[in-house]
Amino acid sequence: MADTVEVIVGIVGRAHGIRGDVGIELRTDEPERRFAPGSRLRIEGSGRSLTVTSTRDHSGRLLVRFDECPDRTAAELLRGAVLVVDVDADERPGDEEEFYDRQLTGLRVFDAADAEVGSVADVIHLPGQDLLEIQTPTGKRLVPFVRAIVPKVDLTARLVQLADVPGLLVDEIDSD
Question: Is the overall model pTM greater than 0.85, yes or no?
């Protein structure tokens, strides 16, 4: 059996209506997969699991109904619950140029001259683009996660290689 990892897919928000629907603050790029009817999600830190009955979009917000949540009162009790699933540790997104945060965190980072300069501490998601937070010997640096700057990600070798971009990992550029 393959190794699995627990990943957070959403946080339950406020109840919507009287039938037990809840808004979900998504923590996955694949809501159609993770919240498909019949999917089983666990509430982090508890022995409870929930079965997705239905989902729908409501003004850009995902509303979910669970079998175990028959009315608004039950839905209100779920507010703030962190929803998790176990996924195959080797699972990749459908696009070969995409990665899960858990796959990038901890990778060693090399500059264009093949010198190790740090490791990926975190992935930060912004509206315009994602950033890699690189822990270097002199502190954390943010690097735009775009092909022109990060041309190589090798999950097998557990490394990321940066392009030759002057000043990329320094606090300031000397103007002299």
Answer: no
Distance (Å, whole) CA 120 – CA 25: 25
> Residue 56 in 3-state DSSP?
strand
State residue 2's pLDDT score: 62
What pLDDT, in 10s, does the model give residues 96-137?
778 888 889 999 999 999 999 999 999 998 888 899 999 999
CATH of 102-161, one of 3.40.50.720, 2.30.30.240, 2.40.150.20, 3.40.228.10: 2.30.30.240
* Distances 54 to 28, 36, 110 between C-alpha atoms, Å: 17, 7, 45
CATH code assigned to 4-88: 2.40.30.60
